[in-house]
Amino acid sequence: MHCCAGITKDFISHLPETERRYYGLGPDGEPNGFLVDVGLGKIEGSLPAPTKEQLLEAGRAALQYNHSFGITSWLDPLADESVLATYRQLSERGELTAHVAAFPQVFARKPAEELARVQKLQQEFKGVPNLTISGVKIFADGVAEFPSQTAAMSKPYRSSGKNGELLFDPARFAELAIAADKQGLIVHVHALGDRAVKESLTG
Fold first, then answer.
1. Counting Cβ atoms within 10 Å, is residue 105 exposed (0-12), middle (13-18) or buried (19+)?
2. How, if at all, do strands 135-139 and 73-76 pair?
């Protein structure tokens, strides 16, 4: 899998220091299978996208599973265009038997462009029964578990001395959050570390 994705010792050695931490290395300097954040994204980018049929079957399975627990509505915090299209297809077939609030992922670096993209999605999927695009999802940081430790903390982790990483410019995030609110959108923030929580609340 590493080789197919182009993740090799040579590839990692030529990355900027700030990006090497996303890839685990063994004593011999070879990739050891550990990936986090950007590193995981490189693997995902090398995998074939699921077909429409696979997404449709996954949607049906999700509905059946949630209904088995009595769940009839949920928030989908990473609903991209292919997922939204699947919900629409299920709805057109009379199979979307739950209400879904879909939140596409956005990035704070270009607030106006990102929210314009969401607004376009809202128009495209407007009127689909049981489906609404009522908010956006943004990541402030990663996770706190060892060895990842990418959740942004105000003090270093004891085991590594790292502080994690803030995934947005606070000023840009504030701009995005204010603009999203004016558009009537809920802002759903992934923030685990105390620094990420503080910056998300104060901008």
1. middle
2. unpaired
Question: Where is 83: in which H helix or E strand?
Answer: helix 81-92
Contact 103, 83 (CB under 8 A): no
Residue 62: Cβ within 10 Å count: 17
User: Tens of pLDDT along 80-96?
Assistant: 999 999 999 999 999 99
β-sheet bridge partners, residue 31: 25
Q: Are 191 and 203 in contact (CB under 8 A)?
A: no
8 A C-beta contact, residue 79 and residue 102 = yes
How far is 171 from 202, CA to CA, in rounded Å?
A: 9
Q: Is 174 helix (H, G, I), strand (E, B) or coil?
A: helix
Report the largest interatomic distance among the alpha carbons of the chain, rounded to a whole angstrom. Answer: 56
Peptide bond connecting 104 to the previous residue in cis, omega within 30 degrees of 0: no
SS3 state at 186: strand
d(CA 73, CA 70): 9
**pTM for this structure?**
0.84
Which residue stretches of the chain have pLDDT < 70? 1-4
Instruction: Say which amino acid occupies 37.
Output: D
* Residue 158 CB-density burial (10 A; 0-12 exposed, 13-18 middle, 19+ buried): exposed
Instruction: Give the pairing type, strands 23-25 and 31-35.
Output: antiparallel
